[in-house]
Amino acid sequence: MLHPFYLIVDDPQWISRLAPAGxxxxxxxxxxxxxxxxxxxxxxxxxxxRNEGITLVINDHWQLAIDLKAEWLHLGQEDLEDADLKxxxxxxxxxxxxxxxxxxxxxxxxxxxxxxxxxxxFPARGKQVDYPSLGAxxxxxWRQKVTCPLVAIGGIRLEQATELRAAGADSLCVxxxxxxxxxxxxxxxxxxNATL
Length: 196
Ligand SMILES: Cc1ncc(COP(=O)(O)OP(=O)(O)O)c(N)n1
Ligand SMILES: Cc1nc(C(=O)O)sc1CCOP(=O)(O)O
Ligand SMILES: [Mg+2]
Fold this sequence. Notes:
With 196 residues, the chain is of the alpha/beta class. 41% of the residues lie in helices and 18% in strands. Strands 1-2-3-4-5-6-7-8 form an 8-stranded parallel β-barrel, surrounded by 4 helices. The radius of gyration is 16 Å and the shape is globular. The site of the ligand Cc1nc(C(=O)O)sc1CCOP(=O)(O)O has 17 residues, from helix 9. Pfam families: TMP-TENI. Belongs to the thiamine-phosphate synthase family.
C-alpha cells in the first residue's frame, strides 16, 4: 500500500532533512544531473531512504533503477517509449505511470502498473504541465477505472487533502506545498498528521 502523502524532491539531502518529520514516501526527481553525478545522487537517496524506512521512487531513469536495485520507478508517457518494462518486472522494480487524459489512462493501464498518477489536479506549480486541470471530479472519474493505487498530483495544497482523498485518491503528491514553505519540516509533519 502507498503512503497517503507522497513528496517529490530534487536532492537526496531533502530526504535526510525530512525523515524526522515522518516522511515515508518520496520520489527523487533529478533533472539537472547525468552520468556519475546522477548515479551518485540516486545511490545516496536510496541509502538514506533504506536506513530511514522510507519508500523511494526513482523518476525517469529505468536502467539506473535496475542497476541500483531500486524498489520503485516513476515513468511518464514519454518515458514509456524507451523503458524496458519486461526487464523492470524481471528485476522486481514496481512502476508508477503518469496520466493526464483518459486515453493516456487506457494506455497506462495496459502496462499493469503498481500505481497510476493523475494530474494536474490543479494548475501545477513545480513544473509546467500543458494539460487542463482535472480537479476532484477527475479523480472520481479515474477512480472508477483504476483498481491499483491512485496518486493525485499538480498544485495540491494541504487544505485540499481531505476533499481529494474523499474523491478517491489514495496518495497525494506535492512539490511546492512543502518545499517552498517557510518551514518544510513543519509542513511535512502537518501533511503526515492530516493524512494518517
Ligand atoms: C507521482 C508523479 N506523477 C507525475 C509525474 C510526472 O512524470 P512525467 O510526466 O514523466 O514528468 P517528469 O516528472 O519526468 O518531468 C511524476 N514525476 N510523479
Ligand atoms: C512533476 C509533476 N507532474 C505533474 C503532472 O500533472 O503530471 S504536476 C507536477 C508538479 C507538481 O508540483 P506542485 O505540487 O508544485 O504543483
Ligand atoms: Mg518523466
